[in-house]
Hints:
The protein is α+β, with helices and mostly antiparallel strands. The chain has three helices and two strands.
Amino acid sequence: TFPMAAKVSVKGNDMHPLFQWLTSKEKNGVLDAEIKWNFGKFLVNEKGQLVAYFPSKVTPMSDEIVSKL
């Protein structure tokens, strides 16, 4: 009975608060990330802390990502 997903802005003046947090080191305490294209991947741990950002060119099963799981 609640929305599972919605279209949101990931860039610009109307950026969704989640993406404001994910892309700003000032807010997430870890890194600044610039979303340049679709399929960027953010890794967040079980405590809700940002671990890493991977751009679109990094595949989901790459050693770069899998090694952090």
